[in-house]
Amino acid sequence: MTFCVSADHETPRQEVMSDHGPMRTPPPLSRSLRLAAWVVAVVSLSVLALGATLRSTVLDPDFYRRALDHERAYQRIYDDVLADPQSADLTRDLLGRLPVPESAVTANLKLVVPPETLRAMGDRQIAEVVRYLRGDQNHVRLAVDIRPVAENIGSLAEIYFGEAVAAMQQQPEPDFQAFTESLGKAAERVVAGHAPKGLPSLPLSREQAVRVTAVLLRVVPEAERSKVRREIQAALESGDVASALTTVTSAAVSDRTRAAVADVLRESGGSTWLITADIEASKDVLAPVHRARTAIHIVRYAVEPVAALLGTVSLLLLWFSPPPTTSRRLMALGWSLATTAALILSAVVYGHLRARDHLVDSPSSWPPAAIRLVDDVQRALLDRVLTTATTAATLLLTAAALLVAVAWAGQTRHATLSSARTRPILFLAIAVTTGAVVGAVVIPPVINGPAPRVCQGSPDLCDLRYDQVAHLTSHNAMASTADQFISPSQDPDIIGQLNAGVRALQIDTHRWEKPAEIADRLRDSDFSPRQQRQLLHALEQVNPPREGLWLCHSVCGAGALELAPTLREIGGWLRSHRSEVVTLIIQDGVSPEETAEAFMRADLTDLLYKQDQDPTQPWPTLADMIDNGQRLVVFAEQADGPAPWYRDFYRYGMETPFDSRSPQQMTCLPNRGGTGKRLFLLNHFVTDSGASRLDASKVNRREEVLRRAHRCERRRGSLVNFIAVDYATLGDPRGAVDDLNAERAR
To answer: How much is the pTM?
Structure first.
């Protein structure tokens, strides 16, 4: 069979020659039918593009997560919503049964509701709403587990009273009986929910300390007494009345708090608030969700399948209903795609002009900060929907331009095309048209991709180098109230500190000392000579030496954690938080070989980052460290190897003085490490015979941390990387670190 195709300007008829003579091809569709097919093709393609946009936006959980991250929603809940004066009723309801002032709540919001808890709550509700919109379920069940929040409220109460006790002035008492009575009244006042008016002061013998311990234990629940007896007695023997009463506070108030929390949970129906919303019958803020679900169902299960069928048929008709030339076939297809793109872009323009005025209104009873946050998130969602639709339209428009250009080139040649020359154009047209249609359906979800990655708790930090990021740092991280250290520097244990936002831990490694070694160590400690004698006597009685490697502060008898098991816990936390980078700065009291062996026993070798031998080289970005799995950076204060991941911090970094006796003495002067290093450690704590809870509550305020960090950055000409604090959950040093990182990510 042979073909003869005439040129456009000569003959509008096509004949097919066969062995039996000439045959006339089927007549083309009438103009009205071709127009109808063209309109159906345009409408069908538009519907398919709409369906693709819906699948990659409102029916995708990552769509909502991206918008929340883009608007810093979780951070704004802490900074704006819960701190809004009009949120006072919420905080009162939350802590109504606890004698904790609202100022303590707003200063410790991230302790009450940790970021991880808040994000998990958000992800759970997002998944629930998406399942409803998809039609997988007929009701929205919003489940909020309040148990972690309730437990954290109890921790906040303990910290608040511990701070109140530490702030009390100690008044000397004339004799032991008066001292015992005054201290007993102070303990009773704490248990009643009030801060004591003052604390008595009197040097005690060991026998007197035992008797006073018995008095204080009367206000402690019987089940808790054996756990705290030794710590209270040791504090009294060393003359530290505030620490003794703080220990009593922790045990007594925590029991009282647990009872109050249990009442709240019982009245609220248990530890989980489960809300099943009948959205279909709703006439309030949830009504638009039901309307959206109805529209989505119509599009997905009725309109979209019909559009796919009609679109395919209409495009085939437009192609195989033969116009005079192949060029005109291409032109028809091209203008179909172009009109579809124009229709989608018109809808996008309308959305930009009008849809913003029809956002879901928040209840007027909400705090203004909450209303602003909801409006901003809605606008972010709308912008992403419109951006996705614009992407689909752009793809169709590009394909249309290509088809029209090819068709125009063919028409302008005015030449007869043979079958061999027509076939490539035919294949090109089919490929371009198919690619455009499939692309408009498939590519928008690909472009949206997964939710933006998060590094160190923020999507904005991934592209920053390690030496450009600020890390909240726990000074003496192992010495915690939770682990019953006699002279603690932190309240939560190490894992609790990591959960609270700490990303660098200053820890001290030691072997357990013998009495003579303890005496030598105490001479270089912050304890006074009298305290050294009392502490040495107490430790000899209650805490004999033990074998192995330990994390201790001053002396292991005053509190110790086994090194390898603690490192293993840190590794477990890192493996369950795969977007976080943690730094250890070790005051190394054991050899580097022993330290390396402990890290191997803790199974951490795969997580360790190997520092560049040249400390002047730039560090990798957080994203690179996370992608490579090397998310644990380890420094020593003295050793430098031999392990490639164990380097002397002061080759790579510098610091400020660490022996400030008052907030006024904290300076930006160079200390260990000199100047001009890539890493900058800001020692932001007061040390006066140990960590001071009262001073920490002052210097840890967000504005104070920011003020000093900015001042030292200006004076030293380097970004602050590590902000080391005592009692990292007091004040809001985490908020200050977040602010610094937000400044650097802009």
So the answer is: 0.54
